[in-house]
Amino acid sequence: MGRSNLALLLEDHGDLGGARELLEKALLSDLRNLGEDHPSVALRSSNLALVLQGQGDLGGSRKLLEPALASSLKNLGEDHPSVAHFRMNLALTLRDLGEHQNAAREAREALRVGQLQSEGIVSGHNSPDDSASAVLSTCSAYCHSLG
Known about the structure:
This protein is mainly α. It has two domains: 59 residues, Alpha Horseshoe (Serine Threonine Protein Phosphatase 5, Tetratricopeptide repeat); 71 residues. Helices cover 79% and strands 0% of the residues. It is built from seven helices and no strands. About 3% of the residues have low confidence.
């Protein structure tokens, strides 16, 4: 966990190269120790994908986000707030790749889950209280921009 926390701190301070290096090591360790379908692997993959997106490596970001989303769907179910976050991250990458229809589909699904969570229909497991509002805010702004 230490590498990932430090990597996120480096990312927050603009050191994407340092963040990438630490996240790649953490992801390899998790893959080796936990297996590719473990929820921690999906989270690390998503975090690394965001760093890659920040570095302009959209293809690399997508290659990490798609399996992370698939794993999360399998392990957590389609209405879990973490799945909504992964969907939104993928939507933003797809948008940047120019795949607007696919991006809109993922963003709308993330918005649906965020709305369910904010209405108390589904609850987040181990997620912060503001998780639903964060997903709703990001998804609403993006979906509104799509029309």
